[in-house]
Design brief:
single chain, about 500 residues, alpha/beta, MetI-like fold, D-Maltodextrin-Binding Protein, domain 2, 3 domains, 6-stranded mixed β-sheet, 14 strands, about 15% strand, elongated
């Protein structure tokens, strides 16, 4: 049996090596000595977002790239959830945060700031039939905010520099579009947000309006790794050069001028449903987000189920061998603990731990496959274990009576019969993985669900982008379900 375990281990290592090799083509290898890693949240147009080709752009992006060009810096950009940016910097995974961040006393404890490059203000978005004039009017209301933003700090009472909001219930969202949708659906009484964003959303939605709060003018800076004074000086020097050269004014006109020909926040024409569809999916080739997201969803799901199958087989055999000998080993106990822990914790928590704590925000696709593979392995092991135990014990005894070893009996007699039970369950596991990958957006990976979020951030619409993702998920799952039913019928016919 020792030889069998060694073989299993070899297969696992080889499989992991192949998967990692495939995924490394989607990962960027960086050298901390030569490149500066920048973290951003690509769902906050016009500051940072993805263009029609899926490339990062926006005011923050182009300005920092112009600064880098002046100072001969090479930047490596990482898109991630807004509330993960500060943690990633504290962990040393990124050197700069470019996400329309304001300098606060709390943030100053863990990072340094560049010079100010933009000054904005806070505004309240409300339904036209339920107007709000100031912070006092928000008392006792449900306020939707972008999680971790300045608006969040103000609404929750952590920042009272601009006034105090009393007894409010704060509802936090991962992106601004979701916050506005919550207001429109009646789940929130108001949205507290940057004025530039308020203007955009109110142009897009005729049933809402906004009011700018006087005295809330706030600066926007690049956050820089604490104690890295050389990088602070470099960014400030580059910013000064960009302003003197006129590049800053050009970028400001490009992204914030309401009458600019290249205005990226142009509202959709309210001319009917078909025109709305055209605006959401066809303009700027935004449908390509869904194709790229679909590719990632299917690839991560497939590789994860392969890794999970190999890992699950190894775990199942080790535990079955311990049961056969009626003697628990250290390895079998560890495998039992592994199954228990993985099945008892949420997959999103596992993903975030592996991505941020183990991989340190590097190699996102590899981290995703490892996370889902480990998660799938726990469930697959029980599927395989249950399928093997479902085979009549007489089959094993018959094999041993013929002079076959335990390994040979398992390989030639037990497993072929167990496959009929295992395969349908494995098909269901693959279907389940496809749906579970919808949490990839928590670590900034563009899956199918994240694609809809990006489209929402560019069009300031929520329902139709999400509905499109839901339709694609349905057809994928439906196709796989039909194929699985055919497989089950063939297996029954072979009995």
């Amino acid at each position: 049996m020792t030889n069998n375990i060694r073989k299993i281990r070899t297969v696992i290592f080889l499989s992991c090596g192949i998967i990692l090799g495939i995924l490394c083509g989607k990962s960027v290898s960086v050298s901390a000595e030569e490149k500066v890693t920048v973290g951003t949240n690509a769902e906050y147009a016009p500051f940072e977002y993805l263009d029609s080709d899926g490339k990062l752009t926006g005011f923050d992006y182009e300005l920092l790239e112009a600064i880098a060009e002046e100072e001969n810096l090479e930047l490596v950009w990482k898109a991630m959830p807004f509330d993960s940016l500060i943690g990633s910097m504290e962990a040393g995974d990124i050197k700069i945060i470019a996400a329309a961040v304001g300098p606060t006393k709390e943030r100053e404890k863990s990072m340094d700031f560049s010079d100010v490059y933009y000054t904005g203000s806070q505004s309240i978005i409300f339904l036209k039939d339920r107007p709000v004039e100031d912070f006092e009017g928000l008392a006792g209301m449900k306020i939707a905010v972008l999680e971790g933003s300045q608006s969040d700090f103000i609404a929750s009472g952590e920042n009272t520099d601009y006034g105090e909001i009393k007894d409010a219930e704060v509802i936090r969202f991962k992106n601004a579009a979701s916050a506005v949708m919550e207001l429109k659906n009646g789940g929130a009484d108001a949205v507290l947000i940057d004025t530039i964003m308020a203007e955009i959303y109110c142009r897009q939605n005729k049933d809402i309006a906004y009011v700018q709060i006087d005295g809330t003018q706030e600066d926007t800076v690049y956050c820089i790794e604490k104690g890295n004074l050389e990088l602070v000086e470099t960014v400030n020097s580059g910013l000064k050069k960009v302003k003197e050269s006129g590049k800053y004014d050009d970028l400001y006109e490009k992204y914030f001028s309401g009458d600019s020909e290249i205005q990226v926040t142009e509202a959709a024409e309210d001319t009917g449903f078909l025109d709305t569809l055209k605006f959401i999916f066809l303009e700027e080739n935004r449908w390509q987000y869904y194709l790229k997201g679909l590719e990632v969803t299917l690839l991560v799901s497939l590789l994860s189920v392969i890794l999970g199958s190999v890992l699950g087989l190894a775990v199942a055999i080790i535990r079955l061998n311990a049961d056969r000998k009626k003697k628990e080993t250290l390895l079998s106990r560890f495998m039992s603990l592994y199954v228990d822990v993985i099945r008892g914790t949420p997959s999103v928590l596992q993903l975030m731990i592996i991505y941020f704590a183990v991989f340190h925000s590097q190699m996102g696709y590899v981290a995703a496959v490892v996370s889902f593979g480990i998660n799938s392995g726990a469930y697959v092991s029980e599927v395989i274990r249950g399928g093997i135990l479902a085979v009549d014990k007489g089959q094993s005894e018959a094999g041993r009576s013929l002079g076959l070893s335990y390994g040979e009996t398992m390989y030639f007699i037990i497993l072929p019969q167990a496959v009929k039970t295992i395969l349908p369950a494995m098909g269901n596991e693959f279907i389940q993985l496809i749906k579970e990958t919808s949490i990839l957006g928590y670590v900034g990976i563009l899956d199918l669900t994240k694609a809809s979020s990006y489209v929402s951030s560019r069009t300031y619409q929520m329902f139709l982008p999400l509905a499109a993702a839901g339709i694609l998920y349905y057809f994928i799952v439906k196709f796989l379900s039909v194929m699985l039913e055919r497989l089950e019928r063939r297996l029954r016919q072979s009995d």
